[in-house]
Amino acid sequence: MIPVKLSNTTQSSIVAMGTRLTKAMKETGQEYLMLNRGVNSVVTIELSEVIKSIDFNSTDIQVYPATNGKMELLKAINQEYFANQATVNNILVTGGGISGLDISLQNIQVKKVLLPPLFWGTYSQLLSLRGLSFESYSNYEWFAENTNKLSGTAVIICDPGNPAGEKYPDAQLLELIQNLNKNGVIVLFDSPYRRLFHNHSDTLFQELMNLEHVIIIESFSKSLGLSGQRIGFIHNIQQSFINEAALRLMYATNGVNSFAQVLVTRLLATPEGIRAVSDFKKVTTEHIEANIAFLHENQLLASRFYQDSKPLGIFAIVDRSPEELFQQRIGSVGLDYFTMTSFEGMENLSRILVSFPHEKFVSFFRSFL
User: Fold this and answer.
1) Is 109 within a domain?
2) Domain coverage including residue 197
3) Which of these, 276, 172, 186, lies nearest to 237 by C-alpha position?
4) Do 147 and 256 belong together in one domain?
5) Exposed end of the chain (fewer CB within 10 Å): N or C?
6) What's the CATH number where 323 sits?
7) pTM higher than 0.85
């Protein structure tokens, strides 16, 4: 028998629900909505014109990629996200957002990591996997009284959030992060949903990029509809941090998929790519907004979670339990997977994906009206 080193993690509830939905569809022959997962499902990004310019037989694709990322992609990221004001050496291409998070968590020396009150369950699983202590903060206002006590800690901020999809004003967000940075608190700014709703005119990353304790973690899974390509990037102004992260990436993956890097470069930096991204974002965000409005108008949205923010991301919390939703052939994940704090009524709340075709979304939820 092989002695196994236990990871101290468990299977994701998101994956477990996916398994249950797949089994139910096979057994009943009926369709179930896969609203448990975080994959934009309104439309796929149209890549037909983009891939015409890619030579799959080129050595640019059929070789091991550079550890930090292909230079063409690093330049495209710099232009698109930082208005060409960053240094490409401070950008590291990663195998998606989860890879960027994991490498960053391996790469920091801290006593504790603070999570949002509602957070993507994988945060805690990664922290357990890497042997890091963690707890959650109550809200952004909590930092006003406690920032100067947080030396030696790191804070994860996700905006728009997961699971609630809550969006706080950028001015409030920037002030909070600047204050944490000033007090030497490491901030992991994980915002894979933001760029679905913004384009290159967005300036937030430019305002964050020179803050020495801020690690920007980005993914192309949501904003470009490329979940299957597993590609993203991290940015930090401290070169030693990026260098060490690159070493960890190299020995874990030997570089990030060359085709994915070439594809993203085309999407960010060519006319046909920019057009494909724009069309994808436009249709996707229109359906997201329509679905959130439907939930709100029909008292299905758990409005208590949006008192000081607005629902904007690809997820929302609804006032229905996972079992109630499953009985209507709707997949979801219970809110208990996304928090360290129990509260009354939590068992009757679920996270659902709202990036889904509006007409079909409404047809399944009408049974609750």
Assistant:
1) yes
2) 56-271
3) 186
4) yes
5) N
6) 3.90.1150.10
7) yes
